[in-house]
Amino acid sequence: MSGPLPRWADVLVIPLINVALAFLVAGGVVALIGENPLAALRVMIEGAFVYPGSLGYTLYYATNFVFTGLAVAVAFHARLFNIGGEGQAAIGGLGVMAVCLTLDPYLPGVLVIPLAILGAALFGGAWAFLPGFLQATRGSHVVITTIMFNFIAAGILVWLLTGPLIRPGQSTPQTRNIAPDATIPTVHEIARALGFEASSSPLNLSILLAAAAAFGVWVLIWRTPFGFRLRTLGESEPAARYAGVPVPSMVVATMVISGALAGLMATNAVLGAQEKLVNNFTAGFGFTGIAVALMGRAHPVGIVMASLLFGALYQGGTELSFAYSTLDRNMVLVLQGLIILFSGALAHMLDGPLSRLFAPRRRLPSTP
Amino acid sequence: MTEAWIDAMQILASTLRLATPLIFCAMAGMFSERAGVVDIGLEGKLLMGAFAAAAVASLTGSPWAGLGAAIFASVALALVHGFACITHRGDHIVSGVAINILASGLTVVIGIALFTMGGQTPPLDRAERFRPITLPFADQVADIPVLGPLYAELLSGHNILVYAALAAVPLASIVLFATSFGLRLRAAGEAPEAVDSAGYSVTWLRYRAVIITGVLCGIAGAYLSTAHGGGFVREMSAGKGYIALAALIFGKWRPVPTLFACLLFGVLESSAARLSGVSLPVVGQIPIEVILIAPYVLTVILLAGFFGRAIPPRALGVPYVKER
Q: Quick one: which of A38, A319, B159, B212 has the fewest CB in 10 Å?
């Protein structure tokens, strides 16, 4: 084994190679199906950026992924694996609706919106509290508990949407619409109000909240005493304990913050885009957050970039179904799985060969 | 009385049919986890197996060819998991998540490319599926009180994979607890350094465990799409792999308790269908969702140590680094 990699290689080259490998294998799948991978990629790029409104969709998806990606990343830094983003986002949606359904007939929108955002974060955080608490005090592993909590959340959502919360007089499992003034304004509405041409898309001002969350996470993790303790815990639990970090309460606090970030996804999807709670609105985005966090190396800048890539993939992927009879958006799911595999589970596959490549060129005396 | 007894036998029979994929998957997970490899990718392998079985059964007309394909596809995913976790010491959970997402995408992508039916396979006809087997004399003894329905309704009339699942439990017990291979496999999950110093390869043991996991998940998948169901539909595993994982934890990584956990979760599922809309005494109507999430709630409570303690194998999820 040779020495460690130079930092620039570790931060830039390895992630890029891993993502390239994922694209290569996915391209191989497309080729096996009998289509031209480059042509399919072109269709996706046009679908993500060129068609009217497509950029808005791309950014809308990216906003979702910033929230769920940050959620996974915060937990990563404390070496906790929160797979429960899906459930926490779903319960965050309930938080939005709990505020909107009770208050929007009485309060003006400007008051309801901040409360609803708070509701999303609180509900999402609360849903992550118990897994964190159980790990901290009872030793049950947060991975298994959050998986279980995803299913429990899904069950609760179906039950509420088919029963107590269903919009009266219909049978689709969804709530009534939120009052128009209590939803987060979409970007195309604002642009039109200002006199610009704009195609409709679900992109809304939650994207600013996502940007703020990304900045906030950076400050929290690298510029506060709390973040220092969190990273210490992630580096070594015994060291953290020896240094006086209250490990159990740190675990709980980290999980709650992580869950709150996942819950905030609901402000974008529910309060900004759908304007009502529909079943399964999380659509697997909680899991996409895992891919985003791994690809972005758990750093807010990386997460924003990875979110943009995944936003483009999701929006571009929908275009595949229109252009081909043999391909559809699930190709993006394949790519997502491959990215998690190569950037996550196989992240260190190339460390050895690459560090040999980057090692100082010392000519070893060659044996004759 | 007789009516109620026949009813009870029928509920138990449907429990058995619903528990079959859980039993296969939980036994699958047991091999992997006993050897030290965490497997949250049971779900993905199950789904992949279900797709491969239905696709090949539909193309060749033979459920047995489908079963073979299911095992092949599921083992392939298991080997990817092994390559990441055993060879490259990757994070087991991350790899498992990747396997699940990969399977969820690949099954639909390949399904659309092969059949252009929106990700489904064509419905399978009788010859392409595993059919129920009527045990000898089942019809003749059905009228004998008590034992007749027990034999005719509960024991007879399942397809071969249901019986195979029941056989898998004692088989897993024997392999894990009565053979030297099983002893070494369990040691690889408890004290890999001891296995290593005894001169056995931890890597090769763990790979064999992961392959067995793949085989069993493949059979479970074939059961879903070519025995219990008549074709593949997208996401047809519907969380069963995770329920099996819960059952494995619930059974504390032991074959017989795990079997009972699978049967318990099977009862919950079969009663959920029957209880929907029925008003019970005292509690009134139970929403079907409450019954369906019960396995997850029970597992969380168990993991929190409120009834008994579930202690995983000691080296579970820890990559083994051979000393140099």
A: A38
**Residue of A145, A291, A330 lying closest to B303 (CB–CB):** A145
Which residues, 6 or more positions from B8, have their beta carbon under 8 angstroms from its beta carbon?
Answer: none
Nearest residue on chain A to B243, alpha-carbon basis? A148
Task: Identify which of A329, A302, A315, A306 has the alpha carbon closest to the alpha carbon of residue A49.
Answer: A315
ipTM of the complex: 0.90
Binary contact (B95, A344; C-beta < 8 A)? yes
- What are the residues whose beta carbons fall under 8 Å from the beta carbon of B44, sequence distance 6 or more? B77, B96, B99, B100, B101, B102, B103, B104, B241
Residues of A within 8 A of B84 (CB-CB) are: 341, 345-346
C-alpha span between A48 and A311 (Å, rounded): 8
pLDDT category of residue B256 using cuts at 50, 70 and 90: very high
Q: Which amino acid, one-letter code, is at B179?
A: T
Q: What confidence category does residue B281 fall into, taking pLDDT thresholds of 50, 70 and 90?
A: low
Minimal C-alpha gap between B199 and chain A (Å): 24
- Tell me if A130 is assigned to some domain: yes
> Is residue A216 in a domain?
yes
**Interchain proximity A336–B108, CB inside 8 Å:** no
A4 has pLDDT over 70: no
Domain count, chain A: 1
Distances (CA, A) of B64 to A292, B73, B236: 40, 14, 20
pLDDT at B233 over 80: yes
- Which chain B residue has the Cα nearest residue A157? B289
Output the CATH code of domain B2-303: 1.10.3470
Please give the sequence-ordered ranges of beta strands (E in DSSP) within chain B, or none if there are none.
Answer: 279-280, 284-285
Question: What range does the domain containing A90 cover?
Answer: 7-351
| Among candidate residues A263, A109, A115, A273, the one with its CA nearest the CA of residue A204 | A273
Closest partner CB to A333 (pick from B88, B104, B292): B104
Q: Do B101 and A336 touch (CB under 8 A)?
A: yes
Q: Return the pLDDT at A310.
A: 94
- Measured between CB atoms, which of A33, A34, A81 is closest to B93? A81
Residue A350 has pLDDT above 60, yes or no: yes
